[in-house]
Amino acid sequence: MKKKYTPTDRLITKITGWIAVCIVAALAVWGSVSLKNYYQYEQTNDAQVQEYLNPVISRAGGFIVAVRFEENQEVKKGDTLLLIDNREYVLQQKQTQAALQKTWAQLKVLESNTGTTEKEAAAAQAQVDASKAKVWKQQLDYNRYEKLYHEESATKQRLEDVKATLDVNESEYRSSQDTYAASVSKIHDIQAEKTVVQAEIARLQALLDRHRLDVSYTAVIAAYDGRMGRRTVEVGQMIDAGDTLAFIVNNETDKWVVANYKETQIKDMQIGDHVKIIADSYPDREFQGTIISLSPATGSSFSLLPPDNSTGNYVKIVQRIPVRIRVDGKRKDIDVLKLGMNVNVYAHKKHSNG
């Protein structure tokens, strides 16, 4: 008996046939595109966007009195990110400034004493010269009277008076020499003391510079243009020097992609080659990149515990080579690529012509 098909059955069969044709056509197009891409490109989806992500670290300890940024905020180089209570650091700076001023005053006193002592030494030198002249004159008188005494033209008493005067003058001469020597020695002592004070001034000046640095460290500023990441501090929190306070992404450097290609894919790759980048977040948007370096070793070689094939449990696994790719284009155009995003990278194959 011949089976009859209703109009509904025929319609369902027709629709199903068209759906099958569309599926086959779509699979054919997808297969053609995939084969074309496979023929033209070395591709990998093991790739992420990278940027310089740096921690904001405190160089001074204390209580936080102000936080002037929010997470994900754009900041400019020199912007103040947060303030630390600086009163203790300011007091230390003032103490050192006072000690430095006191030491400068001591140096001025020593310089004044040096001038006074030099004048005293000059007066003592003049006294030495005067005493020397008196001794010379009295020696001549003594020689003359001694000759007259031997010629019986002068009395012994007169000769003794002249000799006594000569002895007194010689004593005064030696005393003036000692006074002058003491003045010179005192000048040398003052000079040595000035050297000590000058060294103390240098030490206090260095200490003052250090305290000024400590005061400046209480204002944490942005080292470059960037975007703030996760914030981990609040006003009133006690921090120590070296604590990580936040994270900042550097906007002044290039973005790049680290694409982990299989070792069988990199034989034709060279620095300077251009590649195509498609982010998972923007599948309809194509970015351009340039290969800037290839890793000198596989990724596993840099791991904490690299595999040791000599242990006898060797299993051959295709290794990955990190390839660093700079993202080309204007900053405003590539800022949609965020740190850590997954991307697909397509590098042109170099086919030989025979």
Gyration radius (Cα, Å) is 47 Å
The CATH architecture of the largest domain can be given as Orthogonal Bundle
- For the secondary structure, the number of strands is 15
Backbone shape: rod-shaped
Determine the oligomeric state from the structure: single chain
Keywords:
single chain; alpha+beta; Elongation Factor Tu (Ef-tu), domain 3; OB fold (Dihydrolipoamide Acetyltransferase, E2P); Helix Hairpins; 7-stranded antiparallel beta sheet; 4-stranded antiparallel beta sheet; 15 strands; rod-shaped; HlyD family secretion protein; transmembrane helix; AaeA-lik-b-barrel; membrane
Descriptive account of the structure:
This is HlyD family secretion protein. The chain crosses the membrane at residues 12-33. The protein is 46% helix and 24% strand. The longest helix is centred in the middle third of the chain and has 64 residues, at 87-150. The chain folds into 3 domains: 42-51 and 252-348, Elongation Factor Tu (Ef-tu), domain 3; 53-78 and 223-250, OB fold (Dihydrolipoamide Acetyltransferase, E2P) (Beta Barrel), CATH 2.40.50.100; 87-219, Helix Hairpins. Strand 12 (274-279) and strand 13 form a beta hairpin. The two termini are 66 Å apart. It is built from 4 helices and 15 strands. The strands form 3 sheets. The protein has a 7-stranded antiparallel sheet. A 4-stranded antiparallel sheet has the order 3-10-8-5, with no helix packed on it. It has a 4-stranded antiparallel sheet with strand order 7-6-4-9. The mean pLDDT is 84. With 354 residues, the protein is an alpha+beta fold. It is rod-shaped. The protein has helices at residues 7-40, 87-150, 156-217, 331-334; strands spanning 41-44, 47-50, 53-57, 62-67, 74-75, 80-84, 219-221, 226-231, 238-239, 244-250, 256-262, 274-279, 282-294, 320-327, 343-348.
